[in-house]
Structures are given as structure tokens and as C-alpha cells.
Design goal:
Elements: H1 3-17, E1 23-26, E2 32-38, H2 42-45, E3 50-56, E4 67-74, H3 81-93, H4 101-143, H5 149-163, H6 165-176, H7 181-187, H8 189-200, H9 222-226
Antiparallel strand pairs: 1-2, 2-3, 3-4
Helix pairs in contact: 3-4
């Protein structure tokens, strides 16, 4: 294979294809040149990915790969240029024996488009996820937190702890063990026997029945009973 002829012919073809964009950097000992690539809409908006591919022929190109370099990357903050370089080398190995710069430039251009589409999609998904999260948070403000058995039990335990209810229950439990006066009376048989013993004393209290014998001889007039100034034991009007 006439490597010099193959290389010279490809340079002429590339210059016509990328006229105004392709730049020859060196011609000896072999041609070295750069071609810019960018994702769609980058030139008009500046949004997307762009870089320059630099190719240097070797003595046996195209039976061996050209030297490929990547420079002047733009918006590669989330992009590893080594991934692009590995992709170009893989494509070159599949085209050994044939001039391949046009194929590599096209592959690089397509890679940038796919990569930028992936980046845009990821950014859009993050924005949508934030919007959904904000909407859910706003909805929860009106709906409140969904109550489950576990969450209710945990809340009640914390509430009772804050209110000191466990300690109060413990005190009430101890108070339940204390007997009321009635309970003591019912349970203490000595109290019952003390009343019976008092009654069994018999003559301990005696009543003089003669004190009540003359009650029937007392004469009480109706007028005396109706008189507001009536005093028992005093009859008749007061003397002047």
C-alpha cells in the first residue's frame, strides 16, 4: 500500500468536506490537523458539547491507527473526554486498512449528540423530581401525615412520657392497694365485735322511767300551741 498517497488523498478530501473548519497544523514528518465537532444547536445557542479532534498520521496509516487527541472541550463538566477517546479508538480498530478520519469525526459527532441528550434528560428528570417532591410536600401540609398503628403507638408513648402519665399510673396503682374506711370496716371484724360488746354490757346505760310518768297529766291548750310567744311550762297571761 502507498501510505503517502492514501494520506495525501484523504487530506484533500477532508479539506473539501470541512472547508473553513479543518486546519493543517503540521505537514512533516506527517500531516497533523484538527477538525472541530459539536452537538446539534451548539453553534447557535452555545448549549451542548463541543471540542476539537486532532489527528496525526503515522508512517503506516491507514494500516494502523492515527494518533487522536481531544482539545478545547466546552461544557465537558459532566463528561469524561477519555470516554470519547476510547470510543474513537474502538471505531478506528474496526476500520483498519481504510482511511478512517471522516468515519471517526462522524462517530465523535454522534457521540456528542447522544451524550448531550442524556445530560439534558437527566437534568429534566431532576427538575421534574424536585417539582414532584415540592408538590407532595405541599399536599402533605394539607392532608397531614398518614397515621399507621406503628406511628400512633410511637406518638402515644412519647406523648405519655412528656405528660408524665406513666409516673401517674404508677402512683395510682399504688393507691389502689390502699383500703378505704369502708373497706377497712368490712375487713376488720374487731370493729363489728366492739359494737356488739357495747350492747352486751346491758345495764351500762339505764333510763329512769318515772321521769316520763306525769307527761299525760299536762294540759296543753290549742291557743298555747298556736301562740308564737308560747313557752312550754308557762300558762296564762303575764301579770301587770
Amino acid at each position: 500500500m502507498d501510505y503517502h498517497y492514501e494520506q495525501t488523498s484523504e487530506i484533500e478530501a477532508l479539506d473539501s468536506i470541512y472547508y473553513g473548519d479543518m486546519k493543517i497544523l503540521e505537514t512533516v514528518p506527517f500531516h497533523k490537523f484538527c477538525i472541530p465537532i459539536m452537538s446539534e444547536a451548539f453553534e447557535g445557542t452555545g448549549e451542548g458539547l463541543a471540542c476539537q479532534l486532532i489527528f496525526t498520521y503515522t508512517s503506516k496509516y491507514p494500516d494502523e491507527l492515527p494518533i487522536v487527541e481531544i482539545e478545547n472541550e466546552e461544557n465537558f463538566d459532566d463528561v469524561d473526554k477519555n470516554e470519547l477517546l476510547e470510543h474513537l479508538i474502538e471505531q478506528g480498530n474496526q476500520n483498519l486498512g481504510m482511511v478512517m478520519v471522516f468515519t471517526l469525526v462522524s462517530a465523535g459527532q454522534e457521540w456528542l449528540n447522544e451524550k448531550w441528550d442524556s445530560i439534558k434528560k437527566e437534568k429534566e428528570e431532576k427538575v421534574l423530581a424536585k417539582i414532584r417532591a415540592d408538590e407532595e410536600a405541599e399536599q402533605k401540609r394539607f392532608e397531614g401525615t398518614r397515621v399507621t398503628v406503628e406511628s400512633f403507638l410511637a406518638w402515644r408513648k412519647q406523648f405519655e412520657s412528656d405528660m408524665g402519665i406513666p409516673a401517674k399510673r404508677e402512683r395510682e396503682g399504688k393507691d389502689k392497694n390502699k383500703l378505704t374506711g369502708k373497706e377497712l370496716f368490712l375487713r376488720d371484724t374487731t370493729l363489728n365485735e366492739s359494737d356488739l360488746k357495747f350492747l352486751d354490757d346491758g345495764d351500762a346505760v339505764k333510763v329512769d322511767e318515772s321521769l316520763f310518768q306525769d307527761l299525760d297529766d299536762l294540759e296543753l291548750s290549742d291557743d298555747d300551741e298556736d301562740d308564737e310567744d308560747y313557752v312550754p311550762g308557762q300558762s296564762g297571761s303575764e301579770s301587770d
